[in-house]
Amino acid sequence: MKTYKVREELRDIDREALKSYPEFLQHLLFHRGLRSEEAAEEFLFPHYENGTHDPYLMKDMEKAVKRIMKAIDNDEKTIIFSDFDADGIPGAVVLHDFFKKIGYNNFENYIPDRHNEGYGLNVDAITKFKELGATLLITIDCGISNFKEVEKANEFGIDVIITDHHLPHKKLPAAYAIINSKQEDCDYPFKMLCGAGVVFKLVQAILKKKRFSIKEGMEKWYLDMVGFATLSDMVPLHGENRIFAHYGLMVLRKSPRLGLLELLRRADINPRNLSEDDISFSLTPKINAASRMGSPHSAFELFKTNDQVRAKELSEDLFKLNDERKGVVAAMLKEMRKVIEKREIGEVIVLGNPKWRPGVLGLAANNLADEYQKPVFLWGREGSGLLKGSGRSNGLIDLSVLLKEVNPEIISDYGGHAFAGGFTVVIDKVHLLEEELNRAYEKTKMVTVLSENFVDKKLSMNEVNWELYKLIAKLAPYGEGNPKPMFLFEGAKIKTMKQFGKTANHLELMFENEKGKKIKAIGFFMNEGSFSKPMKAGQKIDLVATFEKSNFRNFPELRLRIVDIL
Fold it and tell me: Which of 254, 257, 266, 341 has the smallest CB count inside 10 Å?
């Protein structure tokens, strides 16, 4: 059972620097570390011109731009090589659309097959590019770890420009240029851009050299893809990322992209009301389903097509693939739970099967980590024969620290962050994996406890109103590094309780305020058994929830979203 701490009320001295804002907003800002008028202003009112940095502060940017300009001037063959996820694909669309806009057409987009080629560059693909006569290769959201592949490109006379945002090793590939603000000697002030964000900085830099008849500021239209990727890739939503997410949502709500509009129509989302939740929970899974269950080119083509019929076909395909993905994950989870019930499980859940698809294991691991409140590591076999896996933290241990402790003779490669990671298992040592991960957990569990669960404030049902919602909404868009404010409603009496949805798998609780006004609280994929205590109508509970505005059937409704019931 999770425990929660309510954040302390502000002292008068704390309020002084934020006195121009309402007291409720002061409280939320202060506890997000925004403790000066200037910091609060910058956060609440993102400004594109003032808040984005000079792209030429990035190491190798000048070199990369000159090489690309040379390729454009000489009509050289260029390959854009991107990752297959909801960061790499939008990033690929940004560069594709930009090159088309400026009249440069001698390029091809290449997205590797997740199952047969895996993540990042590969030698077979490099060989294909040589046969195509390519002389320039630009990576998006990958490449920083591809040493031998870059060497092979160099041998073939192909210059490689790496654009990436993943943490570099101490040694770097011998690329022509590397654009990654996480390089130790890179002076760029913001280090947490997603892959599409890095590509957008490259476009900004090219336009600073030459406008190509593109009017000043028109590049902001590419922020629909940058914003989509920023919200999908779970990068921290502060600094430039907050600006890209904020303006990205503005552009997405006006986007002329036929494929995106079809995707929204199919998902029953009004573009004008598009939110970060719609992207994270509804659209991103469809884009990722393309590479997990089919071809990532379907998602790429969806974003760039100008054909209405094709847009509809691709949208339908992605929905079907996502439904197929759900079925595969559900079947895997059923199988995994049976194994867990039969076996004695240690502090870490470790399961694997060569028949499991590595591309969907992260989704299954998320479910199991939530359900069993233990770190989870799952592995399966890729089309290439490698054993690949995904790990998820239960929120109490830093996965990246744990993986550092694992014997490299058992896990040959890994990456990720505190809550999620991917890894490669040495095939003839896979039988040692469970024991080794439990050993690493025991060694690291006392030093890697993550942050506590905080509730922003205690509220009553009388305070659930549009005025308070409007203050809370000033903090949007929400995401990594800027979570939705959570509130504790103590002793809230359940008026009615029911399950809803096509398969009755969602929970609705109804409350009343002192004036008899009904307050609805919903929990998707929840039921009365989802919590540590039984519930029934007439019972008083302690509810942890966030505020949300529902636009179902274009009717605005203020409601609560259930986080937990204590």
Answer: 341
